[in-house]
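dude i think i finally got it to work??
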Amino acid sequence: MRATTLLVAASVAAGVAIVGCSSDSPEVRAVGLALDAGIRDVRDAAPMGDATVEGGIPGAQACAPVSSTSRCKTRNEASVVRGTARFDPKARVTGSAMPALAIFLRHSFVYVEGENRLGGRLHALKRVVLEREQLRTGVVPFEIDMCELDVAAWSEENGTFNLVVILDENDAHDVVTARDGYAYQMPKVGELAKLISGIEISCHGTSPCIDVPLDCNDGIGCTNITPIEHVTCRLPSCASDISFCASAIPDQAPAPSPDSGTRASNTGL
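look at this
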């Protein structure tokens, strides 16, 4: 299957402030490298045009073998999270001809006030533009690499992850065109979205396979979490580039309301 993806590290040209991991962590330096590299855009699909859609959320799907190459310094395909988003094609909001999945991989803790409404601290993100057949069937396989920004944060040192997927029908969640550090990460009321919590990404394990039924349309009610306050170190350890275990998560810093239209100042992942 020919996938159309926009792998988003960050975009200076678009003036986007991405809110992520601690500003004094190695992840910030990785973000700088990603900013220098710019956006890797591999759009390769023709416009879908009209399509006869089916109804109802399709059944769960098996994950295909990992097709992405891990970007961790020590290559390990366990860093690649595989998933299948499933949605009712007739439950879409705008009927856009080119909808996309906005995919966010998040920590289970927060550093900045308001991140709990988004599903946790941002670690990686990706955009997948749907193909014609996917629009008809409501079945969209995807992959997102925990090391997308070249920063390994294995669960042994950083706890579990949350995965947030939003069906974006009007480019409101496209980091390339977004102008706000929070709003593009938030599902709007009526949009199809889902948060899957408790995802283990272990260097000693295998690539996770996650089923993501997009059956929530309550806006931030779909993504709001109660964040964890501590991460417990686990053995055997992994070669994580950052480690939040064995310590309390620092006090949250105040930040603009995610829907205030004010750009966030913390740009580290």
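The two ends are 31 Å apart (CA to CA).
im so relieved honestly
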